[in-house]
Amino acid sequence: MSAPRLALVLGLGSRAWIDRDLIGWALTEAWHDALQDGYTGIDVMEGTAPGADRMCGEWAEARLGDSIAHTPVEADWEGPCADNCPPDHRKTRRDGTDYCPWAGHRRNQNMVDRKPLLAMAFQVGNSTGTADCLRRLSKAGIPARRWTA
Fold first, then answer.
1. Containing domain of residue 51, as a range?
2. For residue 1, is it within any domain?
3. Which residues are CB-neighbours of 67 under 8 A, at least 6 positions away?
4. Are 10 and 143 in contact (CB under 8 A)?
5. What CA–CA distance (Å, rounded) separates 73 from 43?
6. Burial (Cβ within 10 Å: 0-12, 13-18, ≥19) of residue 26
7. Residue 95: per-residue pLDDT
8. CB–CB of 67/4 below 8 Å?
9. Where in the chain does DSSP place strands (E)?
10. DSSP 15
């Protein structure tokens, strides 16, 4: 028996996204499309942020099995900055801990670099993180379906 051949699907979106049913419908359609295209299922990759990302992950987690997998990709907010981060750009939270505000952009590029077959974006307003990831996907030539609220 051969190993599963899962289509990598990136689920992303705004922290303010609330329509869990639309995400479920969209991921179910992507799963059906992948099966029709000869894949054994889908691997849902997402960035672990609250809102749309987490809803995509929860949809996958609820259906884990031979035809659905889940790949969370976290941003390393507290970790060291990258060589291309500007000097003195780190920010401080109310609790006194500092973080790199560019960590989300690095995470977005990491997900794009994994070359998903398709991205599904759920955007509310001018969500900057979602817009950043959509720009990176476009530059990489990765198709994205987009829903707005």
1. 6-148
2. no
3. 4, 6, 31, 35, 40, 41, 42
4. no
5. 12
6. buried
7. 96
8. yes
9. 6-13, 41-46, 68-72, 91-92, 98-99, 118-123, 144-148
10. T
CA Rg value for the chain: 16
Phi, psi of 56 (to 5 degrees): -60, -45
Q: Where are the alpha helices (DSSP H) in 37-95?
A: 52-61
What total of structural domains would you count in the chain?
1
Q: Is 143 among the domain residues?
A: yes
pLDDT value, residue 70: 98
Which residue bears the tokens 């869990």? 20
Q: Is residue 83 part of a domain?
A: yes
Give the number of C-alpha atoms closer than 13 A to the C-alpha of residue 141, restricted to the C-beta side.
0
Is there a domain that residue 131 lies in? yes
The number of residues in the chain equals 149
In tens, the pLDDT along 44-54 reads: 999 999 999 99
Here the CATH number for the domain that contains residue 40 is 3.40.50.450
pLDDT, tens digit, 9 for 90 and up, residues 25-82: 999 999 999 999 999 999 999 999 999 999 999 999 999 998 999 999 999 999 999 9
